[in-house]
Amino acid sequence: MNEHSRSAGMPQSTQYSPYSYFPSANLLSNLKASVSSTWICTTLAVLATFLILEQTVYRVKKRHLPGSKWTIPIIGKFADSMSPTLEGYQKQWDSGSLTALSVFNIFIVMASSNDYARKILNSPTYTEPALVASGKQVLCEDNWVFLSGKAHVDYRRVLNTLFTRKALSLYLSLQDTLARQHFTEWLKTCKETGKALTFMKPARDLNMRTSLKVFCGSHIPDDAVQEITDKYWLITRALELVNFPLAIPGTKVYGAIQARKVAVKWLSNAARLSKIAMTEGSEPTCLLDRWVLELNNPELKGSKKQFTDRQMALVILSFLFASQDAMSSGIIYAFQHFADHPEVVEKVREEQHRVRGGDYSRPMTLEMIDDMPYLRACIRESLRLKPPVCMVPYKAIKPFPISPEYTVPVNSMVIPSLYPSMHDPEVYPEPEKFLPERWLDPNGLAWSNPKQFLVFGSGPHKCIGIDYTLMHMACVMGTAAVLMDWKHEVTPQSDKVHLFPKDGCLLEFTPRV
Ligand code: HEM
């Protein structure tokens, strides 16, 4: 008999066993019943306490704000957030300029009026942008987009120099070339298939390839551009409000992290090559080159002067992240609006003819765009009518007295809705109509109320790519209008918006010249 089996044979009374004190089988089963009923009672009591606490916390935070009196236990309005519709948001906005809700016990204050939206965006001592939970895993904790306060201002001062007029005119010729290449592809596909394109993917590909070439020029090879373009959707789909928290194989966050690693590898390499090229005295051809040259600019006093390849790669990643969905949405709706308003396209074509003198093979320049007020009005109006970003999540970093009557509790989400500002009939009469003319009179209502146009946000985190976006859209739409005709296959889903038309936007392209 070994040591182990001997000890197993010790008399019962000396062994620890909960049952050894209870000789009767009846008593034993009574005890089991009483233990399990105690467990049930305790569990129910804990659950009830939790539920009461949850409702109480919600009610205390909400105070008098409009919104459900009770929150759905644990998940709150999660189901609504999974399938957001414009109608759903509209109902929320109509119920008050400040309203409350809760999702997974995150308390959220939504602001729909222009004043409150602007106040949230312009109160950096009380609020800061809040990305979805997976944001840091996907974009990397050390990405500049997570900076706030002075560190953010200093970083941004350097990045602003990448979007000066001089820099933009360098990017424009690349944008022009790539847009034409994509038009040729779209025409070919429509000719071969004899039917409309689902425009969503071609538009996204145009934007991603253009961004990568504008940002990295020849420092990124074409196969890397293709690899990042193909994998980028893994990043987009992982940035949901709620995700499985662990990045294990098979989860969306894991897929996004793998896609980001590929992108950062190529972008870091591009930064390295750009530094070498600029040291060798090559001419700048892309945003990275401009950046490397700018760091030697004596006017950047007090700003950060050195950036590692990885830091530069993470900045480019943040630009891709911030621009891909918004720019794609902007372009898709611009094509849809143009197709649905042939009278507008006629005017765009007349203007193109005037400015380009009928020579459409000449690349677009900034001076040409300056001389195209009608095209610029169309782009502004398209962005106003279907703003690509309807709301921007912020977080209260301390109790935030947003109005004399209400203070947003610390750690709450506070979300300015941009859409209602752009559909205010006081500033934009007939707000649901596509009326570029409203932007032609510099003294008209639209231009006289610049604070109302929140397409790009406001305050210290206002979009850094505004001029770049407007230039890109003008280049694409102006040239598309003269080189192609396109028909929009309208479906019942065409006007169902969130970020993109729900039917993917069906467009059939044919050549004009
Ligand atoms: C139609 C196109 C675009 C729209 C509608 C758009 C809209 C926005 C909005 C609403 C914000 C948040 C502003 C705030 O919090 O006040 C933002 C931030 C930002 N956008 Fe854009 N954007 C577009 C294109 C771009 C492009 C092309 C780039 C890069 C080249 C870009 C880079 C950024 C960055 C880096 C931020 C964060 C800035 C910061 O935190 O300092 N965006 N954008």
Which characteristics define this entry?
binds protoporphyrin IX containing FE, EC 1.14.19.41, globular, C-22 sterol desaturase (NADPH) activity, metal-binding, monooxygenase, 513 residues, disordered N terminus, Cyt_P450_sf
Describe this protein's structure.
Keywords: Heme, Iron, Metal-binding, Monooxygenase, Oxidoreductase. Its EC number is 1.14.19.41. It is an enzyme of class 1 (oxidoreductase). Belongs to the cytochrome P450 family. GO terms for molecular function: C-22 sterol desaturase (NADPH) activity; heme binding; iron ion binding; monooxygenase activity. The structure is a single chain. The chain has about 525 residues and is α+β, with helices and mostly antiparallel strands. The chain has two domains: about 1-60, no CATH class; about 135-510, Cytochrome P450 (Cytochrome p450). It contains 19 helices and eight strands. It has a five-stranded mixed sheet with strand order 1-2-6-5-3. The chain has a three-stranded antiparallel sheet with strand order 4-8-7. Strand 1 (about 100-105) and strand 2 form a beta hairpin. The chain is globular and about 95 Å long. The chain starts with a helix and ends with a strand. The structure holds protoporphyrin IX containing FE (HEM). Protoporphyrin IX containing FE (HEM) binds near residues 318, 322, 326 and 455. Protoporphyrin IX containing FE binds near residues 389 and 456.
Task: Provide a compact summary of the structure.
The protein is of the alpha+beta class and 513 residues long. Helix content is 53%, strand content 7%. It is built from 19 helices and 8 strands.
